[in-house]
Specification:
Number of helices: 17
Shape: globular
Radius of gyration: 23 Å
Structural class: alpha/beta
CATH class of the largest domain: Alpha Beta
Helix content: 40-55%
Number of domains: 2
Distance between the termini: 45 Å
Number of strands: 11
Largest sheet: 5 strands, parallel
CATH superfamily of the largest domain: P-loop containing nucleotide triphosphate hydrolases
Length: 373
């Protein structure tokens, strides 16, 4: 078995890994953008703000290189996010679960710093050392606090190297731990009192945090910390077509990585899944004529991608090799019915009043009904 070491190039595009980092998967696009980049860029940025926007939104470079879109939505939101990183304020990507906050965060870091791996995953158990630094306790006991005993956090490495650091799910972190960022963001320095020293942030350093207010265990940011962020709210996809496009692209990427023995799904299958999610999420049918009960879950674009992905696995390994309604049904019901009480009522009402009456949905209606029975 091949072992990946830290010395291997960050741009290794080996297909043996399940998921490549953005700077690996899109190395060719990033290289083309940087080769043609003649626009002003902040110190230590690898890509100018203007070309970073092209990388995120997609399009063609001046020499005609096709760049795939990473974000489908309002370009102004991406402009604001990129501009924030060029200032002395940190960026907070805020929104409902599944609105591409982590995806945008990763691609911004890849474009700006060439490294999206300076990552801190926020959880209820995240402590201050994850944001600041910790110690090798064997060396600490043997020799006391020394530079060799210090274990750097991603924040410390980002400050020292002038790179973007990502903090995922910041509001999952306890409020007292969150506030460890205040000095870092306001003074651009990380004190190390045990060594009577500090790490000062180099130009190019900044933090991208993501947060949402729908999950349990959310801790609101203190006003002192919130003031140090510029907040960009990422909404769900504006239209059905936008959401179908996002699901299609992500499903194709995952399919290439995981190599399912299955045909590429028809767009109409994706459209049905997305339509169900949008209608239940909004509490009304797409034509605006019928109000429906809303389940407790967020029914995000990310969950729609998961439903189709699971369906493809079922079709490839247990089915005909072609995605069918039967392959989708189990994952679809599981994604919608999170609360066995209220969600079951909402789902069955939708199934009986909406799905049953759509002529081209008969197969999906039947498959879902069989799951419930």
């Amino acid at each position: 078995m091949t072992k990946t070491t830290a010395s291997q190039s960050k741009t290794d595009v080996s297909t043996s890994v399940i998921r490549q980092h953005a700077e690996q998967e899109y190395a060719e696009e990033l290289a083309a953008i940087r080769e043609e980049d003649v626009y002003p860029k902040p110190e230590n940025w690898l890509t100018s703000p203007k070309m970073t926007l092209l990388y995120l939104l997609g399009g063609k470079t001046p020499k005609g290189k096709e760049i795939s879109p990473k974000y489908v939505g309002d370009p102004k939101l991406m402009e604001m996010a990129i501009a924030t990183l060029a200032t002395d304020r940190a960026l907070l990507l805020y929104g409902l679960p599944g609105t591409a906050k982590s995806w945008v965060s990763e691609h911004l870091a890849a474009a700006v710093s060439g490294d999206s791996t300076l990552l801190i995953q926020g959880t209820a158990g995240t402590d201050e050392s994850a944001l600041r630094y910790s110690w090798n306790y064997a060396q600490l006991i043997a020799n006391g606090p020394t530079p060799e005993a210090l274990v750097e956090s991603p924040t410390m490495r980002g400050m020292r190297d002038g790179k973007v650091v990502r903090v995922e799910e910041l509001t999952r972190v306890g409020s007292d731990v969150q506030d460890a960022l205040i000095t870092i963001l306001s003074e651009k320095t990380l004190p190390i009192p045990e060594l009577s020293s500090e790490v000062q942030a180099q130009k190019g350093f900044n933090i991208i945090a993501t947060a949402n207010n729908r999950d349990r265990g959310v801790n609101e940011l203190s006003s002192a910390l919130a003031r140090r962020f510029n907040t960009v709210v990422l909404p769900p996809p504006a239209t059905l077509e936008d959401e179908v496009t996002i699901v299609q692209r992500r499903v194709e990427q995952l399919g290439r990585a995981l190599q399912y023995p299955v045909e590429k799904p028809a767009v109409e299958e994706l459209r049905r899944v997305v339509t169900i999610f949008r209608e239940l999420r909004n509490g009304v049918t797409l034509d605006g004529k019928t109000k429906i009960k809303q389940p407790s879950g967020t029914l995000s674009t990310a969950e729609a991608i998961s439903v189709v992905n699971n369906g493809l696995a079922c079709a490839g390994y247990f089915g005909s090799g072609k995605l069918t309604a039967t392959d989708l049904a189990t994952s679809l019901v599981g994604a919608i019915v999170k609360d066995p009480g209220a969600d079951v009522v909402a789902w069955r009402e939708y199934r009986q009043t909406i799905m049953k009456n759509r002529e081209d949905w008969k197969d999906l209606f039947k498959a879902c009904k069989e799951i419930d029975e």
